[in-house]
TrEMBL record:
Lineage, highest ranks first: Bacteria, Bacillati, Bacillota, Bacilli, Bacillales
Record-annotated Creatinase N-terminal domain positions: 4-138
InterPro entries per record: Creatin/AminoP/Spt16_N (IPR029149), Creatinase/aminopeptidase-like (IPR036005), Creatinase_N (IPR000587), Pept_M24 (IPR000994), Pept_M24_MAP (IPR001714), Peptidase_M24B (IPR050659), Peptidase_M24B_aminopep-P_CS (IPR001131)
SUPFAM superfamilies: Creatinase/aminopeptidase, Creatinase/prolidase N-terminal domain
Protein name, per record: Aminopeptidase P family protein
Gene3D superfamilies, sorted: Creatinase/methionine aminopeptidase superfamily (3.90.230.10), Creatinase/prolidase N-terminal domain (3.40.350.10)
One GO MF term attached to the UniProt entry: metalloexopeptidase activity
Cofactor(s), by name: Mn(2+)
Residues in Peptidase M24 domain copies: 147-348
Alphabetized UniProt keyword annotations: Aminopeptidase, Hydrolase, Manganese, Metal-binding, Protease
């Protein structure tokens, strides 16, 4: 049994919980090494306090589970099967069908599956695993950090590809298509999320959707993108000016850059997460743009593009070595556009080490 699973087993024993059921693909990948999008089919990992674990998967994925190195029981089922029947038999073999307490991912487990679990374990009370898994996953080991750095370097190159794709009259979707095409040629399986390329006033939408807006002189151009490498995500945002830039645009950009730089300086072990958000927000507010910074300053990064911790002013979590997250302050003005600058960082004993390294000084693309 690997160390990650052993941590769950020790937690179950400490809290006198019979077993835990994981159904989120990200946690199953983290704990078992098997990475899969099951679509509507059931994918579940059962971890027991006093028995060997079991992985439930569609039969069509059995070979992939074995290739991923999983050594525990595999409960494979066909599309015409009811997987809960096999699960009940597996629980009976472990004398676990009379469980009194079962830990589940309350933010992921559907009501239908919770009812199925209660049907085969009618005496069980369901409790949450969310906090324990967060605390295990929140610090990355050296191998995870190496993969995240590889993903970050590819994100840097995607920004460069995006810049080279800019030309008068091109659309946001033209540039998105070029970035994703070139990433596929580099062997990237998929993007971390829908690639965002926004021109002009659309850059003022923090979660804008690329479309047929054409590039014009004087536009801000905002790229927000990331790639998945070996199951881990990167996430970078850079903002540029196209051919010309106004004094107001320059002021907005320099304000965001100052906020990001100051926040990065704060990133070191022992600092409360809330201070990062407070630092960025204070600088942006003092510049007169406080009402135009509507989101948190960052988020955890790893198997999922949004993980714990959430970098906001109510989070009292203390930074510690191995945490990986983004720092991404922004200012968004209606009709004019917006600026966001985002980097992926890892906390070390010396402070923040930046994984994304594309230059951040204001660039006017000619």
């Amino acid at each position: 049994m690997n160390q990650r699973l052993e941590s769950i087993v020790q937690w179950l024993r400490h809290h006198q919980i019979d077993f835990s059921v994981f159904t989120s693909p990200s946690n199953i990948f983290y704990l078992s090494g098997f990475n899969c999008d099951p679509h509507e089919r059931l994918l579940a990992l059962f971890v027991f306090a006093d028995a060997e674990p079991a992985l439930v998967c569609p039969e069509l994925d059995r070979t992939r589970v074995e290739e991923a190195g999983w050594k525990g029981e595999i409960l494979g089922y066909r599309d015409s099967d009811n997987p809960w029947e096999q699960i009940l038999e597996s629980l009976k073999r472990r004398n676990a069908h009379q469980a009194q307490t079962i830990a589940v991912e309350k933010e992921h487990l559907s009501l239908e599956r919770a009812e199925s679990l209660k049907y085969i374990c009618p005496s069980a009370n369901l409790v949450s695993t969310e906090n324990v898994v967060r605390q295990i996953r929140v610090t990355k080991d050296n191998r995870e950090i190496q993969i995240l750095e590889e993903a970050a370097q590819l994100a840097d190159s995607a920004i460069e590809i995006g810049l080279k794709s800019l030309r008068p009259g091109c659309t946001e979707l033209d540039v998105v298509a070029q970035i994703e095409y070139e990433m596929k040629k580099k062997g990237v399986e998929s993007m971390s999320f829908s690639t965002m390329v926004l021109f002009g006033e659309k850059s003022g939408q923090p979660h804008g959707v690329p479309g047929m807006r054409q590039l014009k002189e004087g536009d801000f151009v905002l790229f927000d993108l990331g790639v998945i490498v070996k199951g881990y995500c990167s996430d970078i945002t850079r903002t540029f000016a196209y051919r010309s830039v106004s004094d107001k645009q320059t002021h907005i950009y320099e304000t965001v850059l100052q906020a990001q730089s100051a926040t990065l300086e704060m990133c070191k072990p022992g600092i409360p997460v809330r201070q990062l958000d407070e630092t960025a927000r204070q600088i942006i507010s003092q510049a007169g743009y406080g009402d135009y910074f509507p989101h948190r300053t960052g988020h955890g990064l790893g198997i999922e593009v949004h993980e714990y911790p959430s970098i906001h002013d109510k989070n009292e979590e203390i930074l510690r070595e191995g945490m990986v997250f983004t720092i991404e302050p922004g200012v968004y003005l209606p009709d004019l556009g917006g600026v966001r600058i985002e980097d992926d960082i890892v906390i070390t004993s010396q402070g923040a080490r930046t994984l994304t390294r594309f230059p951040k000084e204001l660039q006017v693309i000619r």
